[in-house]
Amino acid sequence: MTKLVIAAVGAAAAVVLTMALTAPVAQAQRGATAPRAASYAAPSAYNGPRTPDRKPDLNGIWQVLGTAHWNVEAHSAMEGVPAGLSVVEGGAIPYQPSALARRNENFKNRLVADPLRRCFMPGVPRATYLPFPFEITQTPKHIGMAYEFAHATRTVFLDGTPHMDDLDFWMGDGRGRWEGDTLVIDTVSLGDQTWFDQAGNFHSDALKVVERFTPTDATHINYEVTIEDPKVFTRPWKMQMTIYRRVEKNLELLDYECAEHVYEKLFKQKGKP
Length: 273
Description:
9-stranded mixed beta barrel; 2 domains; single chain; 9 strands; alpha+beta; 23% strand
């Protein structure tokens, strides 16, 4: 009797094991694809330098190394644009149908319609992942951010003062706080004139941005952005990427004079001063 019970249990276990091993094969045969794991590691406990007030020391020059500037969603390579994976949680931006149609129209006209091509400020969060470095200057009551592109700047207040009312800033009105070792910045008053990328992903004047800067060591920051805009999107959505500290000797921000380059391209006749 005991032998029969053992045999039955063994047979059942074998059936379960066989089903577990063959299920992915059957799924692949049906054309289904298993969910793709996140391409980044969860932030670890911070182990790096600190300021005198015991906050993570973010002072220095940083840069995102990726393709979000061209398109925050997954995209193939084309002339002047490297291929890239999506930095959007879930892969796609949750547009309302009418807004998606406008984004597609923006994409068709992107070579002339992108606000950056007219030297407008990049806005938030796009300024962070442009293919240019930016510098953070940190004090107990303020965070200053200076960007190499077109001298764009931000001042983020950490003193608990509320947002100002009825404003419209290209780079927004930022208020920050520390949650443990994470710098959280809430930004409003961003207007509706900037894009998230070169592919025409856009927003309205109802945009609210929450950025979370979580340093994982002396040279890496996990950057997470929550986007909320009920006029354009069906729900809030997130982006995530890594910011790298630039460590070259004698490094400093240089100048990218956008207006000067546009003038050279559009207004000066070839061969004439």
